[in-house]
Amino acid sequence: MPKQKVSVDFILKESLKLFRQKSYHNTSVADIAEACGLLKGSIYHYFPSKEALMHAVIQFVHSYFREEIFSIAYNEKLSPQERMEKMFKKSERMLLSDDGGDVMGNVGVETARVIPEFSDEIKEFFAEWIRATEHIFLQITGEYEATKLAEQTVAEIEGAVMMTRIFKDPKFMKNAYERINDRFASFALAGVPNSK
Question: Residue 86 — pLDDT band, cuts 50, 70, 90?
């Protein structure tokens, strides 16, 4: 028998799992309702449409990353190297988990042309991730290099997540981490040059 009432957070978490596992387009409102123990029509008491639910999931994930992962970049109690390592490890756990997964990357690619209204929110997520990473690189290099390195780091992590999932092999994340760490260490040893 379906539950009478569930929390919005519970619906968001269950939706996130389904969107990650099945994709946005292949997940129906009925699938979400079933995962939540609700009747299909009950979902509409919480969200007026599947698109509204997806917007809420994007905001939910973004908020989690902002508070739990991106904030690490600004923790002055840690060295830049410690911040980079902690941010990488924590984002890796979230991006590869069955519960969360890389919903921003997946939904971004899947819906970019079909549902452009998700685009701005997903772009802002990645822009904030780049800014957080850039903040760490600014501790060891100039502004021009920090921006370039931050963009490269985020792109490399996203690519490694995709390859890890396709090949079901964690070596892609391990190798990405080693490259990022080596790059970071080489700039740290070189000192802070003038920014362009």
Answer: very high
